[in-house]
Each structure stands twice: as C-alpha cells, then as structure tokens.
Specification:
Layout (H helix, E strand, L loop, with lengths): L10 E7 L6 H14 L3 E6 L15 H8 L3 H13 L3 E6 L2 H8 L5 E4 L7 H10 L2 E5 L5 H6 L9 E6 L12 H10 L3 E5 L5 H8 L4 E5 L9 H5 L3 H17 L12 H6 L7
Helix pairs in contact: 1-3, 1-10, 8-10
Length: 274
C-alpha cells in the first residue's frame, strides 16, 4: 500500500515502535487497534542489538529491552503481512544501512529515519535511492546540520517531520515556530509528536501537516518509557474524527450562494422594512 499525500488531509501514523516488547501477538493487537482508530499506518523500529554500542543502556535495563523487542526480517515480515491483510500500511524506522537493507528486503514503499540519525547524510541518501517515500524527523539537529538537509528541499520523495526529541514533551517546548519555518523550505512537512495527549496533533492538523505521527499503545501500564505517554485507541480515534471535520471545513464551495443557503437567500432577505 502506498503513502498518498493529501495537503488537506493529514496522513496519520500510529507509532507502535517497540511498545509491543517483542510479543508478536501483542503487536498484532496493537495493529488492529490502530486500524480501528482510523490510522493510515503503523510504524515499528528495526535494529540489531548486536550493533548497539556500549552506553548507559547497559546499566539501566534498556539493553535487555532492546534485545527482547528487536525485529529481524522474519518477525517484521510477519507484522508487515498482517498489516497488509488488515489494510493498514506498515513501515519502520531504521538506524543504519544494515537496518535499511532489512526493511527494503520486505518493502521499498516507506522508510522512516528518526531524529537521532537525521544528521546521517549517507543513510538519507541511501534511503532516497531505494525507497519511494522517506520520512525524516528533524529533531535533535543543530542549525548547521539542519541546513545541510536543504539540498533535499525540492525532493518529493522526502517528508520532513518537525520533532522535538524529548519524552514526554511539554507544550511550551513544542516549538511549532520551527514547523512553520520548515514549511517554507521543504515541499512536504509533517509532525512527530511526543507530548502526552492529542492537543499537539490537533494543532498540526489545523496547520496542514501532511503526516502526523504519535506513539501508540493499547496499555500504558506495559513496560518501557514510550508506553507511558503513548496514545490509545480512544485518543487516536478522536484525532481521526477531527481530521475528517477539518477536511470538510476546507471543501471549496466557491464564492457564491451555496445550495444550502437558497432558502434564506430567497425568503429571508429584505424581510424587515425601515
């Protein structure tokens, strides 16, 4: 299934990421829940724990979570095929060229490059060469790194997402001024939100973000940081309802009298003298 952009109707991505904690049955339940909510796509993350460098994650339990939750080609293919069967797009974030190859061996439709790798021009170049659509979150970049991405500003394969890489994000740190700046530079600009709740997504909807991505779960009590601030089916459904309304708000009815106004136009104008 292709990613079809509509400037008047945001494409909604439910980022499951590694919220399923390596349990494919749970991942499938999350996919079905995202589908019911009206999401256009689900997104996972592909990495190989063997490639993870040493760091604080070795002491705080995250490495064990990464090893438990990672998707190899076989596991990702199961989730991709399940999503396709249930008519919802499925793609993944990648962190390296190896991850890119794993994803492209299943599908070359969509790939996501997350903010921590947005400086990696080699990875971006390979993604643009091999995939039909490349979604790039641009949080966590300094000004010079951001400006280096301007070389791709007219590339219609690229979808740039405004993102602030803080978890969870406070409203005063959302920095939507940067979102509006990016819209002046790139052809396709969306939003990846880490704020608890849906208000940031609503703002992005109202300001015509082409893609809106929010973390998604079916149980906030599950292990892992991301589950705690993720949206659930009710939340994502509310965004979808507003998306439909915002789309209808912008249907062009022209400058003249609408058919709906004919009764008032014919029978109410000029009713009062004086």
């Amino acid at each position: 299934m292709k990613l079809k952009l509509n400037k008047d109707k945001s494409y909604i991505v439910a980022e499951i990421g590694w919220n399923f904690l390596g349990n494919l049955t749970l991942a499938k339940k999350m996919i079905l829940s995202a589908k019911r909510s009206g999401a256009d796509a689900v997104k996972f993350q592909i990495w190989n724990p063997k490639n993870l460098k040493k760091g604080p994650w070795d002491k705080d339990g995250r490495r064990q979570l990464y090893e438990k939750s990672y998707l190899d080609r076989k596991k990702y293919k199961i989730l991709y095929d399940f999503s396709k069967k249930n008519k919802i797009n499925c793609f993944a974030s990648v962190w390296s060229i190896d991850d890119l190859k794993t994803l492209s061996s299943v599908s070359k439709e969509i790939v996501k490059i997350p903010s921590p790798e947005a400086y990696n021009l080699n990875l971006i170049k390979e993604a643009l060469k091999n995939f039909k659509k490349v979604i790039l979150s641009v949080g966590c970049l300094n000004r010079n790194e951001l400006k280096k991405l301007f070389q791709y500003k007219k590339n219609n394969k690229l979808i740039v997402l405004h993102c602030v890489s803080a978890y969870p994000l406070k409203p005063e740190d959302c920095n939507f001024k940067k979102f509006h700046y990016l819209k002046k530079i790139f052809n396709n600009v969306g939003y990846s939100g880490h704020m608890y709740g849906i208000e940031d997504a609503i703002y992005a909807l109202a300001n015509k973000a082409v893609v809106i991505e929010k973390h998604f779960t079916i149980n906030r009590n599950l292990q892992g940081r991301d589950n705690k601030f993720s949206l659930n089916e009710k939340d994502l459904s509310a965004i979808n309802v507003l998306r439909e309304k915002f789309y209808n708000f912008n249907i062009n009815k022209g400058l003249g009298v609408q058919q709906k106004e004919k009764d008032i136009f014919k029978n109410y104008r000029g009713r009062w003298q004086g």
